[in-house]
């Protein structure tokens, strides 16, 4: 399987390009009845970096993830996302047949209905296949640095709005997540769990895979091959045939990450990946997050373990009672009196 890291081009001294955003959240407000879970939250995440969101219990961290991934519809705010795609060398891309040109909606923008085709594929119906590459090619918004050269990251020049889209549509755009409470298909093998993730972005769904067409068989084989590669990446290749429910807790968390990576995200959201992990598993996790980042995938991380956060995060956003109370490097936020107060209950 051919893939290569989305290697950042090494700038010459003195010409360091400014960091580019992959996600820009502005004015996010989420309410449940009288409870304000997120209150005018704004943050910017730079492409290729690791951003950690920390905060005391109930601060709104998971609510933020739920808004970004389409599970919650916020009352106000925007989440601009710059989809990224490395044509032909995207990590863990199944070797599917060339994509047809996507159909554009009336405003030149793909619709959720189109991107939801992936969800249908997951449900065993025939994938229509036109959503390959998602928004990237929509309306010719691929940046010049990548367009037509066949290499290097293709980044949408204009961002797309994440809020208001379905979870499947968000996944198709290249945003994947894991959950605080692990959500694997317990009866399925580790390999099949990852296959489910890969099928979100491949055009072979369970129903389509039954068709006796050579091309469909090739696509299904590519999905399986990619799933093996991902299992190997997270150190679970030797557990491929085991039901997910029987795996140790730390292995289940790694399997969730592999499944999320199977959707070919350019932005990976990890919700407390170290929860319940042993010290050794935490060290492995630091290493794994570093390897994910080395493949050009931006990581947004919710984590309570400040040692882990300090080891992997470039920037930390601190939430308390639904508000951003600090943003900075791990060292900066650790020393911030407002952050210390929030954790001690005096903020
Ligand atoms: N579906 C929901 N219905 C009602 N209230 C909710 C819902 N989801 C979240 N909340 C509330 O929003 C607030 C923020 O919750 P959230 O789970 O986002 O916090 P958190 O920072 O992730 O907490 P923890 O660290 O404990 O996981 C809490 O008061 C929570 O009870």
From TrEMBL:
Residues 94-119 have a biased composition (Low complexity). Residues 23-346 form the ABC transporter domain. Keywords: ATP-binding, Nucleotide-binding, Transport. GO terms for molecular function: ATP binding; ATP hydrolysis activity. SUPFAM superfamilies: P-loop containing nucleoside triphosphate hydrolases. Residues 94-136 are annotated as: Disordered. This is ABC transporter ATP-binding protein. GO terms for cellular component: plasma membrane. It comes from Frankia nepalensis. The lineage of its organism: Bacteria, Bacillati, Actinomycetota, Actinomycetes, Frankiales. Pfam families: ABC_tran, BCA_ABC_TP_C.
